[in-house]
Structure formats: C-alpha cells, structure tokens
C-alpha cells in the first residue's frame, strides 16, 4: 500500500478521534487532562493535516470487548461506578484501586470505551491492510491491569489492540517511550513470546517502580541502535508505539530532557521498517507540549513537513510566548553518562541473544475481528446532542481545565476557548460505511467558517 516518492515512503494514515474526548475531566488538580487530545486535534486540523489522512470517529468499545483481557467483575464495576454512588462501592474501590490517582469521574466508563475503541479499531484496520499506520492519541493507557486501575489508567487499550493484532500477526513489538514503565502491557504479555515489550523509562523512586531499561533524569534521546537490534532479533510483523509525551523536556511530572524532534525520531525510525504501525498516546502533563508533540508526530507519520510557526487555533494563547511548534531542551544535566548508556545497551543485547531467534508460533484458525458494533444508531445521532447528555455541570467543571495556571504553574493566562455547544468542533459529515467506525469528512469551507466563528467566542 505504501508508495514511494522522491522524499521517502508515503504511508496511508487512519486517525481516530471523538469530539467528546476533551470533555472528560479527572477532577480539579489532577494532572491527567483529556482536554490535551482536543488541543492536539485542533492544532493538527489547523495545520491542514486532516486533508492527508482518513479521520474516523471510533466506536465505543463494549464491556465484552474489554473482557477479552480484563476481568468481568472489574469491568462491571467500571460500568457501574459514578460520583453519585461511590459510597456504595467503597470496598470495591479499594479492591480495584479506584479513588485517588484513578478517581471516579463523570463518564469514566465512556471515556474508557472511546480510548479503547480507537485503539482496537486501529488494529482491525491494520489487520485488514486498509492502512499502513493507525493513530489514536486517546489511547496508550499502559498502566491498567487486568483487575486494577493504576497510574491514571483504567482499561488497557494497548493490550486490547495487541490482542487484536495477534489474530493476524505472529509477533508484535511494543515500544513505549513514556517516561513511566509500561508495566500493564508487560504484565499482560509476560508469559508469551509473541509480544515483545520494550519500555524506555525512568527508574528509581519513580512510579511504578518496575522495569528493566531504566534510565535517570535528564535523558535527552532514545537509542535507535537498541531498536535496530530488537528488530533484527525479534522480527515482528507489526509494531505498536506508545508515544507518551511526559518524557519531553519541561513536563509537569516528567524529568527527561527530550525535545519534540527527539521524541518524534522514534516514530520516524519505527516507521522506516515499513510494517503495520499503531501509534498511541499515553502520559503527558504539560498539555501545550503534548499537543505540539502529537501534532508533529502525526505530521511525521504523514511524511509532511509543517512550519514551526503555529497556525491560529482554538487554544492559541496556550502556546505563548513564542507560538512555535518546537521546544528547546532545558539546561538540566543528563545524569545518564555515555558509559552508563553503553552498559544498559550491553545488557540488553545480552538479553536479546538469549531469546530464541524470531520465535515461531503455531497459528490457529483466525478468530473473528472485533468488528465494532452496528453503528447505524450512532450514525443517526447528532454529535452535539450526545455532547449535551453530560449536563451543564460537566461543562462548568471543564472550564477549570482550561486554566493554564493549574497546569503549568504560571498564573494570569486565560483560556482561549469556551466550550460552547456547537461552537468548538468543526462541522463534520459522517459517512456511513460497512459497519465500521464512521469516517469523518471535514469540509474545508465549513471548517474555516467554524474557525472564524470560534475566534469571536473566545472568552468566558
Ligand atoms: Zn507516564
């Protein structure tokens, strides 16, 4: 499917996004802000990237899809728990680790459905060879366990997506460049050689306290040579890349010193192997940089150069004072000496040598695709109406998350965007297609009209 141009190999890209995702709110003071997905989406729309890829609104993954990995009682609990009935569930909340890092919030289960729906649909699309790359920035929630929430993650969309890929692929490589260890994914596939997990992360008094490729503060690059060796030894036929952006310089929780270009090098490199590639989000807590990073990585997936000068967008003021796409590294010390990095590499290579070369598997009859449910009803649905189901109080809560002061420790900045119904999102035309996730056509003229309208609706 890939076709070659003078500039490199162009890939077909399918991108999954639901306009509701930015409305979910973990609560005041919580660093995880689904709003960053909306910021990313808005920024990449305004760069014109929607013209170069297929945009789909994901189906909501069902409980049945989720229990392909998670336990029935845990998913049942996630479906049932709400802020207004929490008191009846205190025992289960403890058992499933829901409450503090992983709070109960309005629409929690739907949020998990959208995040998982996008990742699973991306895998199905790749399996059907209908795309080269699938992107779901709402996915990548790598800490969720079979029967436990962890580290802001409830349902492990990555595990579900990999399970889907394994229906068609003998070996799947999972790479995780979040600053935290991808422990949930590792745990899920610990006993199979059909999935290899490689996680670059900080180690030592740092959540979750596990994992092997441990590095220290100030890391400023990922080593392609490690990946080259892994590819050579393991020979996967599909790749899942978790692009957690908390490894970027200046992250609110992270302490690496990676630039956006450095982060995206990993995308570029993994893409160069010309294998089916699923790109997912993950951590990332300085939200203006998350939007920058994932926008740029979408452009990298598309082999498209985009200017450093940011286009006007709904959240333009978040990106001051420079209004540039790229960020500068800080002057923090890289505590990982070359010697130390070499030692890590050495150990990793030794581990790789102990692996059987490209382990084989007996393939069995291919299970049915996780075909998203019949979407006919959803197609008829007015997207704005769906937005309004979660009532006004949701939106009020949401306004708080636009306050940058809480995010980035700088007061005085105001949110640019007001989340008024109908004003925010580009008008979309939904295309009914083969019982699949709906493709979203964004009409150029309508989009510019909308953007124009939004400019006037910029304060609260
Ligand atoms: Zn993280």
UniProtKB/TrEMBL annotation:
The UniProt entry, under Pfam families, shows:
Hist_deacetyl
GO term, biological process aspect, one: heterochromatin formation
Q: Which positions in this protein are listed as binding a divalent metal cation?
A: 178, 180, 246
Q: Where does substrate bind?
A: 101, 151, 285
- Region described as Disordered: 371-460
The UniProt entry, under Gene3D superfamilies, shows: Histone deacetylase domain
> Keywords, A to Z?
Chromatin regulator, Hydrolase, Metal-binding, Nucleus, Repressor, Transcription, Transcription regulation
Q: Where is the Histone deacetylase domain?
A: 30-300
Q: Where is this protein found?
A: Nucleus
Catalytic site: 143 (proton acceptor)
Molecular function terms from GO:
DNA-binding transcription factor binding; histone deacetylase activity, hydrolytic mechanism; metal ion binding; protein decrotonylase activity
Comp. bias regions, Acidic residues: 371-381, 399-409
Enzyme superclass (EC): hydrolase
What do the Gene Ontology cellular component annotations say?
cytoplasm; NuRD complex
The catalytic activity, as recorded, is: N(6)-(2E)-butenoyl-L-lysyl-[protein] + H2O = (2E)-2-butenoate + L-lysyl-[protein]; N(6)-acetyl-L-lysyl-[histone] + H2O = L-lysyl-[histone] + acetate; N(6)-acetyl-L-lysyl-[protein] + H2O = L-lysyl-[protein] + acetate
- EC number, UniProt record: 3.5.1.98
Q: Which family does it belong to?
A: Belongs to the histone deacetylase family. HD Type 1 subfamily.
Put simply, this protein is called Histone deacetylase
Recorded source organism is Periophthalmus magnuspinnatus
């Amino acid at each position: 499917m890939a076709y070659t141009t003078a500039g490199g190999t162009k890939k077909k890209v399918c991108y999954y996004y639901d306009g509701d995702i930015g409305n979910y709110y973990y609560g005041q003071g919580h660093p995880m802000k689904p709003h960053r997905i909306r910021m990313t989406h808005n920024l990449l729309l305004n760069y014109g990237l929607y013209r170069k890829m297929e945009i789909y609104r994901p189906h909501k993954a069902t409980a049945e899809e989720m229990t392909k990995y998670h336990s029935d009682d845990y998913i049942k609990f996630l479906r049932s728990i709400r802020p207004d009935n929490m008191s009846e569930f205190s025992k289960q909340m403890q058992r499933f680790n829901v409450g503090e890092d992983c709070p109960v919030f309005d629409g929690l289960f739907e949020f998990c459905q959208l995040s998982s729906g996008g990742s699973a649909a991306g895998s199905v699309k790749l399996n059907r060879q209908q795309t080269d790359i699938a992107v779901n920035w709402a996915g990548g929630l790598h800490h969720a366990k079979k029967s436990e929430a962890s580290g802001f993650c409830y349902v492990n969309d990555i595990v579900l997506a990999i399970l889907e890929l394994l229906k068609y692929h003998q070996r799947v490589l999972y790479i995780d460049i979040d600053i935290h260890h991808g422990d949930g994914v590792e745990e899920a596939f610990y006993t199979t050689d059909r999935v290899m997990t490689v996680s670059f992360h900080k180690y030592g008094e740092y959540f979750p306290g596990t994992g092997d490729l441990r590095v220290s503060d100030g890391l400023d690059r990922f080593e392609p040579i490690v990946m080259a060796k892994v590819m050579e030894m393991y020979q996967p036929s599909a790749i899942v890349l978790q692009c957690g952006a908390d490894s970027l310089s200046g992250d609110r929780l992270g302490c690496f010193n990676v630039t956006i270009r450095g982060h995206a090098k990993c995308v570029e490199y993994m893409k160069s192997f010309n294998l089916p590639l699923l790109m997912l989000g993950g951590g990332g807590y300085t939200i203006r940089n998350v939007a920058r990073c994932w926008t740029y990585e979408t452009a990298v997936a598309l082999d498209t150069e985009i200017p450093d000068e940011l286009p006007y967008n709904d959240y333009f003021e978040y990106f001051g004072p420079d209004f540039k796409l790229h960020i500068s590294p800080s002057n923090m010390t890289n505590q990982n000496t070359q010697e130390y990095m070499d030692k890590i590499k050495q150990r990793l290579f030794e581990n790789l040598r102990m692996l059987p070369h490209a382990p084989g598997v007996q393939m069995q009859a291919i299970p049915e695709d996780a075909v998203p449910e019949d979407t006919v009803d959803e197609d008829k649905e007015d997207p704005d109406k769906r937005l309004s189901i979660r009532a006004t109080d949701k939106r009020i809560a949401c306004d708080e998350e636009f306050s940058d002061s809480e995010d980035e420790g700088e007061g005085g900045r105001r949110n640019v965007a007001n989340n008024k119904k109908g004003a925010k999102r580009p008008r979309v035309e939904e295309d009914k297609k083969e019982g699949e996730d709906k493709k979203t056509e964004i009409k150029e003229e309508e989009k510019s009209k909308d953007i124009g309208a939004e400019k006037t609706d910029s304060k609260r």
